[in-house]
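Hi W.,

Here's what went into the run:
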Amino acid sequence: MQQIINFLIRNKTFLLFSLLFCISLIFTFQSHSYHKSKFINSANFLTGGVYESANNIGGYFGLKKENQILLEENNRLKSILFNTKTSETVVDTFIDSSLYDGNYILKAAQVVKNSYSLTNNYLTINKGKKDSIKEEFGVITSKGIVGILDKVSPNYGRVRSILNSNIGINAQLKKTNHFGILTWNGESPYIVQLIDLPKQAPVVVGDTIITGGLSTIFPKGIPIGTVTSFKTDETENYFEIDVELFNDMTNIGHVYIIENLDATEISNLNNLDE
Amino acid sequence: MNNAITTNIARFIALVLVQVLVLNHINFLGYINPYVYILFIILFPIKNNRLLFVFLAFLLGLTVDMFSDSGGIHAAASVTIAYIRPVVLKFSFGAIYEHQTVKFSNTDVGQRLTYFLIIILIHHLLLFSLEIFNISKIILILKKALFSSIFTLILCILITVLFSRKTK
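Here's what came out:
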């Protein structure tokens, strides 16, 4: 017994070091899997508050740009509004989620923290449980998708960005219904990858990629980006496509949070035979 | 003694805030960020309680992790450099360290540079290996670690020179 205690006292620094190192490794591994990062995230009171106050100051410098984006979006929405009476088929716009029978609720939020240079990037927004925001809600801007909420605290929410190597979003070609999975290889913040797209799909450079209706998170038809290059993967059965994002992920100010009211109903239905 | 504690607390808070609010958003050439917060570990008083020192390093890393949503990678890297610091000190300062009389402002520039460089390189290598966590991207890990190390080293030296209390 005496020897054990002596051993502990002699090696106390090394033991403490090993313990702390293991704890940090556990945190690291948890952050690699969905919904597991419990304590260490930027959606808590302290970090959210610091980011919010910093953003309050920094926000003023981007006002001009923000106004420009809002103006462009208003312009686009107005043109849809005025043109629907004359022609029922608006060809050049994306499918508007408001045309669905009120299945989706949109809420505006502001990004208080954004990162894009790491391998697993997250954003923090200033809306949380108090604003009826839950995990698994989609986040978009007027130009395209941003990510999926994966952690909410009372006042803040953390968004798993599409620039995250652990993300997989259902996406498809705009012109046909061939769909694949949107991932990111961790390199350029302007380019994401669409994998597992069947080889039969008629892909050409410049095609538009939109969200597919298969996920319960995003409605079908939210713009993602355009095809810049494509090749077949190792199995020669699927395409691997580089998609240039419409969104500039390095500059995100205001976002919209999408809630799908039918999400639980659809996922219950999908899980019936499992 | 009290003075040293106050200095270190102030340094802890200031470095974390500077790191998460300014330096994490530099993204020079797309991916190069300096990690200057480890200056707290580098400049921590030599005569110390090692248990407390290792624990403080862990806390420092964890705070940065919390702000940058990176799991525990900063905590792991910081705790490692805090643990191996005595070895690096011995290697770079040699005999002076044996007498526990190292004052960073009085040491030779070359020795100080070696000390900074070794600590920063180990920290960054560990940090990026854990962040990317993919052996097939070893080139990316080395590239990121090398360029960020250079950036961090330059900034660390500039900051220590700027805030040194030597009056001439």
